[in-house]
Amino acid sequence: MYSAILATALTGLSVANAAAPIVPGTTGKLGDAAIVTTNPPGITYTATLPNSTTSDIRGFVAGTSNANGTGVVFNINLSGFPDPSLGPFLYHIHDQPVPANGNCTATLAHQDPYIRGEMPPCDPTQPETCQTGDLAGKHGNITTNPFQTSFLELYLSTVQGPASFFGNRSIVIHTSNTTRLTCANFTLTSGNSSSGGNSTSPSGNGTVAGSSPVPFTGGATASFVNAGAILAGLAAFIL
C-alpha cells in the first residue's frame, strides 16, 4: 500500500512538472531580454558534439553574427538520437562550459542573465521573456532524426564581455524529461570576438574578456534539489 502511494506521488510530480502551463508575459527579475544590435559580422562559434561512448548523438550547433549586427544566426545539424519515446528532445545553451572530464552536469543551468528561471515554460510568442539560452523553448524542440534547422536568435552576443555572450558556454542535449544526453563547448571558428560594440545585456551574471562565465546556481539546479527534498520527505514519512 505504501509503495503504491509513493509510486502515485512520483508519477504525479513527474506529470505536473512535464505539463506545467505556459504563463504569457513571465519575465526575469532583471526584466525582459534586450535585442543585441552590435554583433560584428563574420564571427562564428561552433559546438561540435564529441564521439562519446555513452551517446550516439553527433553533429554541431553553430552561431554566426547576423550580417546587420542584430542577433545571431544559428545553424544546427544533429543526428543519432535514441528512441523517439524519449523525445521530443531539447537543447539549450548552459551557463558553464563542459569540463575536461566531459561531465554535462557541471554545465549547471541554462544561460539566464535576466534571472528568469526555467518555470513556467518559455512562451515562444514572447521570446524576450524566455531565458536567453533556451533555444528549444524559443525555436522548437528536436522532433526529427536527423535534425536540421536554422533561425535568427536576437538575444545573444558574439562579443566577449556582456552576459549575453555565449561563446564561452556550452550546448546540452536533453530528453523530454530534461535528462542530459550529451554536451559540447562552443569554440571560436571564425572571426575575432574581442572586437565590436556594446550590448545592453545586464552585467550581473556576465563575463570579462577571456574569462570563464560566473557560475549560476539557480534554475535547474534548484528545481532538482527541491524535488529531491520533497520525495525524500515523503518516503521517510511512509517508511
Note down, in words, how this protein is organized.
Helix content is 17%, strand content 21%. It has 3 helices and 7 strands. A hairpin with a 6-residue loop joins strand 2 and strand 3.
Radius of gyration: 18 Å
Would you report the number of β strands? 7
- Give the number of helices: 3
User: Structural class given helices, strands, pairing?
Assistant: alpha+beta
The outline comes out as: globular
Low-pLDDT segments, ≥5 res: 1-18, 197-239
Strand content: 15-25%
Major beta sheet summary: 7 strands, antiparallel
Draw up the topology in text.
Elements: H1 2-18, E1 44-48, E2 58-65, E3 72-79, E4 90-94, H2 135-139, E5 147-153, E6 170-174, E7 180-190, H3 220-238
Antiparallel strand pairs: 1-2, 1-7, 2-3, 3-5, 4-6, 6-7
Helix pairs in contact: 1-3
Properties at a glance:
seven-stranded antiparallel beta sheet; 239 residues; alpha+beta; single chain; disordered N terminus
Short description:
This protein is α+β, with helices and mostly antiparallel strands.
